[in-house]
Amino acid sequence: MTQLAEKPAAFAMALEKRPTGGARWLEDLRSRGAARFAALGIPTVRDEDWRFTNVSVLNSVEFAPAGPISGAAERLHGFAYTDAPVRLVIVNGRFDTTLSRTKGLPAGVVAGSLAAAITDHADVVQRYFGQLADFTSRSFVALNTAFVQDGAFVYVPDGVVLDTPIHIVFVSGADATTVMAHPRTLIVGGAGSQARIIESYIGTTGESYLNNAVSEVFVGENGSIDHYKVQQESVDAYHIASLHAHTSRSSRFSSHSFTLGGRIVRNDAVVILDGEGGDCTLNGLYLADRERLVDNHTTMDHAKAHCGSHEVYKGILGGTSRAVFNGKIIVRQDAQKTDAKQTNRALLLTDGATINTKPQLEIFADDVKCTHGAAIGQLDEEAIFYLRTRGMTYAEARDMLIHAFAGQVLEGVQIEPLRESLEAELFDQLARDLAEVDGAGQ
Amino acid sequence: MSMLEVRNLQVKAEDKDILKGIDLTVNPGEVHAIMGPNGSGKSTLARALSGHPEYVVTGGEVIYEGKDLLAMDPDERAREGVFMAFQYPVEIAGVNNSYFLKAALNAKRKHHGQPELDAMEFMQLVQEKAKLLEIDRSMLTRAVNEGFSGGEKKRNEIFQMALLEPKLAILDETDSGLDIDALKLVANGVNAMRSPERAFIVVTHYQRLLNYIVPDFVHVLSGGKIVKSGGKELAHELEAKGYGWIDAA
Fold first, then answer.
1. Is residue A310 situated within a structural domain?
2. Which domains does chain B have, with CATH numbers?
């Protein structure tokens, strides 16, 4: 694939001022990231992976590196489950010690600042950092790598079962100028360990910024990690993020991604099932309204035999919003007895909303089960009529069907208070969108 | 005052004239059977009365309890006591049957200024009504009609009717696809609800159902019009002679 680099003029200045210093390997990694980004530039719609998502606007915005912002503590209010008992708060890319709380975690568990971990847990960080988030072909990973400085680090030693979920909250904001942050998350689970991690991305509407996040997750042998991502950025923000996960023998990984905010949103989720008997769930629910664009690209890479993967992505689109779903399943030659299932559904609430969806299967093994299905459409009018003949108004019937549609993904959230607050946030936003749809119809 | 007064009703569906002037008067306590060959417009009548958006009324009027039924939305008709048991009940993925039943019941109660039922009161009512139709627990916890057998779907329709206690119930080919045991269950459910205040319009292709739900009147629909009306003996005559006898008449 040719990537015609558009001169990243907007980023050239910023790149000159990127963070320096620290460990030699890190400094070297940043330089390589910067060089790669200079060559790749911001992707264009000529790039197959960005065909429907035009981010050229980023070239014309002058992003200043994000610094501290006012009222960080207040900014946590009004978002899903930000009052979690264990939380790591990262403000504009920098770990905030005063807002974070990690009391009561079992011995040996590390949860805190990535910058600190680079020094304090150099061996673990150096062993895993950057091993999954490949920047040779991914512009934004290259850009993030060039700016690596801080973020979150979670380490769960062998055999430790974490009962309390760890909530990593990324607070973004810009007081006056348009800023960018490149937060980084590294999660490492030891053999037989279990953890539930939530990543939330929050921002106050009206503020404009670019959040370019990269997360890497390693699940140890016979271990389990449930990963939740709740994205509630400012609707004037650009959110570009990639999640890279790696599973080992007999381990399981689940990812549940909820997209509620952001002006232009791109989520890449890449999972490598790299040990026999692994299992992966990749679920997503996104709300697109107004003129927002939400793009989800997923890659389920079956590298070893006897692994199962289950993927359900659902979108609810209103206004003149656009969505993109690209679900790639790779079954490598050694990955016999793979059982992969992918479902992608979108509900269009308005005539102006559009979605481009594409399943992509690359199968190199012969004894596999691989299914995929996509369904795009409006609400089932017969179902609405049926509910109305039982006394529910049109709006009640419609809401019941939309809630049921979203319910399947919400039910996958195994953290009760998170599910409850997420459900409330989601249905609040839906109610506002639907009020707009109703208003336009009158 | 009659409960339902259908006068010269004309209905179009998919740009085709289906009903070409139906007159029908239904009084409280009566059971009217609407019979007729395929394509005669039986189901169209049922759907038009329940307010299906694809069935366009092009002429005539329907007065229900002194009000213009055709001016009401489908949900308003339901809350005012009109119920239709679907020929093909719709599957509603992701909506739990008991949650759905509670929402339906409370929509009606709210409309009539009654307090909404709480979980306990609702379950008591459900248990009481479920027995008669042999509705088991799993049918309540599954999604509405999803994965239900044909018989379960029809039983679920009559079960809803029993819970919602309509004034006017329209059964659209509720007997189609039922074996004799399921048919008896459904008929028992209907008969248990017969009362001097409630009326039924039973749409059916076959006389068999009318052995169990005995009608007061039988109307034969053909070519979008009621061509013959009579008592319950008319159904037996039809059974013996077939619909050809009507068309020839």
1. yes
2. 4-248 (3.40.50.300)
Instruction: Please indicate if any CB of chain B lies within 8 Å of the CB of A427.
Output: no
Give which of B90, B117, B159 to mutate to test A binding, by max A Cβ within 10 Å: B90
Suggest the residue from A312, A343, A381, A386 to mutate for an interface test with chain B (most B CBs closer than 10 A).
A386
Partner residue facing B94 (CB), from A385, A392, A405: A405
pLDDT number for residue A319: 93
Whether residue A408 lies inside any domain: the answer is no
**CA Rg value for chain A:** 21
Q: What is the pLDDT of residues B142-184, one digit of tens each?
A: 999 999 999 999 999 999 999 999 999 999 999 988 999 999 9
Residues in chain B: 249
The set of residues, in sequence order, having a beta carbon less than 8 Å from that of B126 and lying 6+ positions away, is: B98, B101, B140, B163
Which residues on A lie below 8 Å from B143 (Cβ)?
404
Task: List the one residue out of A329, A379, A326, A380 whose CA is nearest residue A355.
Answer: A326
CB of B64 within 8 Å of a chain A CB? The answer is no
Residue positions counted in chain A: 442
Chain A residue with minimum CA distance to B78: A391
CB A304 within 8 A of CB A273: yes
pLDDT on residue B43: 94
Task: Check if B74 contacts A (Cβ < 8 Å).
Answer: yes
Chain B: nearest CA to A96, how far in angstroms? 41
In a domain? residue A274: yes
Question: CA-CA distances (angstroms) from residue B221 to A18, A306, B9, B46?
Answer: 83, 62, 13, 12
With b meaning 16 or more CB within 10 Å and e meaning fewer, what string describes A144-176? bbbbbbbbbbbbbbeebebebbbbbbbbbbbee
In DSSP notation, A258-269 reads EE---SEEEEEE
Q: Which of residues 334-393 of A touch B (CB under 8 A)?
A: 380-383, 385-393
Query: Which of the residues A387, A399, A401, A409 would you substitute to probe the B interface, choosing the one with the greatest number of B C-beta atoms within 10 Å?
Result: A387
How confident is residue B38, by pLDDT bands cut at 50, 70 and 90?
confident
Is A409 inside a domain boundary? Answer: no
Q: Could you tell me if A312 and A359 are in contact, meaning their C-beta atoms sit under 8 angstroms apart?
A: no
Q: Show Cβ contacts of residue A328 under 8 Å, excluding neighbours closer than 6 positions.
A: A297, A298, A299, A300, A359, A360, A361, A362
For B43-52, write each residue's pLDDT tens digit: 999 999 999 9
Give the domain extent around A324: 9-380
List chain A residues with CB under 8 Å of B84.
Answer: 389
Structural domains in chain A (count): 1
- Cα–Cα dist B21/B19, whole Å: 6
Tell me the C-alpha distance between A36 and A138, whole Å. Answer: 9
- Residue B104 with chain A: CB contacts under 8 Å: 387, 390-392
Cβ–Cβ < 8 Å for A368, A337: yes
Among A383, A389, A396, the residue with its CB nearest the CB of B74 is A389
Helices H / strands E in chain A, number of each:
8, 21
